[in-house]
Amino acid sequence: MTRYLGLPLLPEPLARLEELAIDLWWTWHPGAREVFRQLDYGLWRATAHNPVRMLWTIARERLTEAAADPEFVALYDRTLTSLDDARAARHTWYANAYPQLRGQSIAYFSAEFALHQSLPIYAGGLGVLAGDHCKEASDLGVPLIGVGFMYPQGYFHQRISADGWQEESYERLNWADAPIEPALTPDGKPCITAVPLGDRSVLVAVWRVRLGRVKLYLLDTDLEENAPWDRELSARLYGGDRETRVQQEIILGVGGVRALRALGSDPAVFHLNEGHAAFVVLQRIRDLIERGVSFDDALETIRQTTVFTTHTPVPAGHDAFPFHIVEKYLANCWGTLGPNRDRFLALGSHDNGGGTQFNMTALALRSAASINAVSELHGRVTRQMWDIWPGVPVDRRPVAAITNGVHAPTWIAADIAALFSTYLGADWFERHDDPALWDLVGTIPDESLWQVRQALRRYLFEFVRERARQRWTEDRGATPRVVAAGTLLEPTALTIGFARRFAGYKRPELVFHDPDRLARILNAPGRPVQIIFAGKAHPADDVGKHHLQRVYRHALDPRFAGRLAFVDDYDLHVAHFLVQGCDVWLNNPRKPMEASGTSGMKAAMNGVPHLSIGDGWWAEGFSGTNGWIIDGQSGSDSYEQTDYADAGALYRLLEEEVVPAFYDRGRDGLPRRWMALVKESIRSVAPRFSARRMVKEYVERMYAPAIERRKTVNSA
């Protein structure tokens, strides 16, 4: 470690504090977080929970004082011992279940990874899923190697103008504050690889992120040796035009494979998390052809060792490029693959309704033997959507379904986790994918769980008001915006959360279909209801921005009496408060456009019942007693009629079931009926929709078979 060379040395008893700060393992281990909280709680909050930044600014006297505190040093020592054990991966689930696969790694390619707000290389659900996948792989001992982009400007920060329009700004990452370090080659040198791009070569630096047992490598073109326009290629997540996007995806796929090779890594399996990374196939085929393998044999080898996960049924979510653009930027990538150039391009050929283009998802589908969608319903939709297996009936198309899950230690609130430790057992985390364990949720006293739920709602409102105060200060007293930010919300009122990317198919305005009826629901005497909105629209999505603007303006409407709020700049930090602190989680996409969704899983694990359309994971997760399903049963193909029917169904559920259950209190003041819902939400969702269940399923159904196939292919 060298980043703090300009500062005095850490006291000897705390010599590995920098090592702990830079390993994001700390983000999901309470003891590790407690080290930094106790070190300087004010600084912990002021740095938005970024220990790397803390160590730059903390008073050296405080470090000396902490090093002399036996209790603090004992906590620190226990934490470092746990970190060492995590990295060793000796007695993990994977080591015990698959000893024959020892030494075989899985490369996991994704365009974004959401790990912590100090590393803003994510935009939304895809990144959160990738981050949770990596964290759970670390917990289980799965030898995963992540590959993605190091975006120096990350994703955009969101501010809402006085008239409700989303404004985007980009903030350059302070490298010294980020939990990253240069990735080193086997001979100890910083890893830099060259990627052919059009008529030139672009240099790509590689950064490493530590996640306990898992390594994540991030690619970066911001090098002085590159032309200014090439330095910008990795600057922003999902930025630029189609030509920028195809260049980014060549760097991710081709550059990622080359980087792994330069780092001395030879993965047995390559997992493509969405089609952005499908150019991995190109480089891998070329490598095999250079060893004398025929194109057909190379393609078959690649296919047998490639896993592909598709995440969306929305056509716009699948990158497609005109062939001339693809050929332009692949001009120097072919090498010995050149004579088979047309055959490779044919792998991506697909007509999505607007003419034949080079489709990244089609390339991945044709190049992977293991393919999965992210929910049962999404699997059915995907099999209907992609007709690229000639003569294969729809129901036999090779698309499996592995429903998404979320990383329980990351998303379950500390207060809830403490209850679990008391009533489920201190080892509940190690067994949290076992459904039988969660039957013990019924033993948690209603009083105790209700107190925790109220405390989490209170934490949420403290956060919302602090955010509103910051905006008021920054805007020099812009009162309407402070109202929209949530200053009039009531800490004890039934609070509904709606937080996700603002896009048309997610129908963020459905609840406003009948404003007068909604106003009556929100302002019912003695039974107030309030809704907190959060989310970003893609910078190029004007439809999504207009949805957001209208929602924001509703928050200023006097009819709603300040019972609506919009929390801006939604990120992982905001998400934790919302999924833990709301009382109900609302989701109303246009079915079947939600492939899975994961925010509702996080909320449900915290005792926040789900109120949703029967789409994505909720089509599997709804039991009849753990939340509510919105079903207008319009039976119409008309969006207008479906929206009308679904809005009516939503209002009826709020009026007749949700609100009465929350406010039906016994003489002891406890909402017994509500607590039964809360407990059933936790019991039914926590094991089944955990990342632990999900990653085990990937290993059992995708990774292990692919590794075995690799052995067969290599021995042929």
Search tags:
716 residues, alpha/beta, Rossmann fold, 3 domains, 10-stranded mixed β-sheet, 6-stranded parallel β-sheet, 43% helix, globular
Question: Would you summarize the structure shown here?
Answer:
This protein is an alpha/beta fold and 716 residues long.
End-to-end Cα distance, whole Å, is 45 Å
The CATH topology of the largest domain is Rossmann fold
Q: Please work out how many helical segments DSSP would assign.
A: 28
Structural class: alpha/beta
- Helix percentage range: 40-55%
Residues in β-strands, percent: 5-15%
- The CATH class of the largest domain turns out to be Alpha Beta
Topology diagram in text:
Layout: H1 17-22, H2 30-39, H3 41-46, H4 51-57, H5 60-67, H6 70-88, H7 93-97, E1 106-109, H8 125-140, E2 144-149, E3 157-160, E4 166-169, E5 181-182, E6 192-197, E7 200-211, E8 214-220, H9 228-231, H10 242-262, E9 269-273, H11 280-290, H12 295-304, E10 306-309, E11 320-321, H13 323-329, H14 341-347, E12 349-351, E13 356-359, H15 360-366, E14 370-373, H16 376-385, E15 400-401, H17 408-411, H18 414-423, H19 446-474, H20 479-484, E16 494-499, H21 515-522, E17 529-534, H22 542-555, E18 564-567, H23 572-581, E19 584-587, H24 599-605, E20 610-613, H25 618-621, E21 627-630, H26 639-663, H27 672-685, H28 691-715
Parallel strand pairs: 1-2, 1-9, 2-8, 9-10, 10-14, 14-15, 16-17, 16-19, 17-18, 19-20, 20-21
Antiparallel strand pairs: 3-4, 5-7, 6-7, 7-8, 11-13, 12-13
